[in-house]
Amino acid sequence: MMMKKNDVFSAIKHALSVANKGDQTVTVQLQIIKYYSELKGLSAREFVEEVGLKPSLVTLFTDSMKLARKLTEAGMNKDRL
Fold first, then answer.
1. Interhelix angle for 5-18 vs 24-34, to 10°?
2. How far apart are CA 81 and CA 31, in angstroms?
3. Which long-range contacts (CB under 8 A, 24 or more apart) does 11-17 make?
């Protein structure tokens, strides 16, 4: 079942708020992979603005979405993340 975008952003913000400082980048990447289906069609700029990330992280979003697509195509079970 697809989540609403606002719920996805809330979940990602929460995950970031409880992540250790040194794990925040990888946490963002994992959340993008986890919510890949819900984030498709969203621009990198929209994502960083909605989640409250630095504008310089647009490339992280773009690269993570590419990785998520490849993992999805390979049959990865995102529910285990």
1. 150
2. 8
3. 11/35, 12/51, 13/51, 13/52, 16/51
The Cα–Cα gap between 52 and 46 comes to 10
CA 20 to chain centre: 17
What are the start-end ranges of the E strands in 1-81? Answer: none
CA 25, 5, 63, 71 torsion: positive or negative?
positive
Q: What six digits make up the tokens of 31?
A: 């959340």
Alpha-carbon gap, residue 31 to 52, rounded angstroms: 14
The one-letter code for the residue type at 12 is I
Count, in order, helices (H) and strands (E) of the chain.
5, 0
Rounded to an integer, the average pLDDT of 44-61 is 95
The whole-number pLDDT of residue 1 equals 67
